[in-house]
Amino acid sequence: MAIFDGTEGEVIELAQAIAWTANYRKQAETEGQEMVIKGHFYGRDILLKLLEQDGCVGIRMYYALDENGQKQLVLVGVDANGNDIEEMVVDHSSICPPDCSETGSLGN
Asked: Which position among 3, 75, 85, 105 has the lowest Cβ density within 10 Å, counted as fewest Cβ atoms?
């Protein structure tokens, strides 16, 4: 099992992110999805609450479907051993669409 230290992840080029998000939308459209969920927004406060848990070095995001078949992300803090800290589990993001960025290239 991996050991996490809070430095996981890295910055990628905007062009790569644009290509990847476009690939996702194209795939979803070819699969006939009526409304393609482009993204989820979580506010700073809830993310900080997750990160401020004892022993938390990062956040894991699980793909999920709610009872209506709507795509969701379920967030949970993670400790240095890679284990979920399940005292706090987060969802109820603001979903795009309809709550999308009016500017930018990732969701267009």
From this structure: 3
**Does 10 reside within a domain?**
no
Written in H, E and C, the secondary structure of the chain is: CCCCCCCCCCCCCHHHHHHHHHHHHHHHHHCCCCCCCCEEECCHHHHHHHHCCCCCCEEEEEEEECCCCCEEEEEEEECCCCCEEEEEEECCCEEECCCCCCCCCCCC
- Domain count for the chain, please give it: 1
- Nearest CA to 59 out of 39, 70, 44 is that of 44
Residue 65's domain comprises 38-96
Each residue of 60-92: pLDDT tens digit? Answer: 999 999 898 888 999 999 999 999 999 999 999
